[in-house]
Amino acid sequence: MAKLTPSRPFTAAKGAISLFSAPLIVAPPSEQVVAAVLQYADVREEHDDGRVTLRFTAARLAREDMALLLGEACVRARDISIIWDEAECEMVRVIDLAPLRAGREGLDQANLYAAARKRSLRAMSNVTLHAAA
User: Fold this and answer.
1) Quick check: is 14 in a domain?
2) pTM over 0.85
3) Most CB atoms closer than 10 Å: which of 7, 25, 65, 98?
4) Are 119 and 6 in contact (CB under 8 A)?
5) What is the DSSP letter of 1?
């Protein structure tokens, strides 16, 4: 009787993910990051209703003075935008793109897993038949 032996399935996958896994939860930005955006933001977008959107550019965050000010939080600061009301002198909203970035990385991992699975299934279709001794 012939025996089927698949060749090492899913060897190219980098950690399994589940379709039923919980979404990645990202901690809210720290007070230090929000204060830095308010004080040192280099992008200022004016709106018609007297509000302003403040955020950092990648070039500003790459500078040495920002690295000294924020330390590890420099990476986190790239995801933060603040809508500021000039008339009321208050924050209207803090926009955080980190959950979207985390979702995109999860999607990339799912695509890598699917490609590895296709390669493994293709390899399994070329199963070698071994004669039983």
Assistant:
1) no
2) no
3) 98
4) no
5) -
Q: What residue has token string 């009301």? A: 85
DSSP structural state of residue 82 = E
Residue 60 lies in domain? 28-97
Q: Is 111 exposed, middle or buried (0-12, 13-18, 19+ CB in 10 A)?
A: exposed
- Tell me whether residue 15 is in a domain: no
Task: Decide: residue 119, CB within 10 A, 0-12 exposed, 13-18 middle, 19+ buried.
Answer: middle
| Phi, psi (rounded to 5 degrees) for 77 | -70, -20
Q: Is residue 4 part of a domain?
A: no
40-83 confidence digits (pLDDT tens): 999 999 999 899 999 999 999 999 999 999 998 998 899 899 99
Residue 115 domain-assigned (yes or no)? no
Phi first, then psi, for residue 90 (nearest 5°) are -150, 155
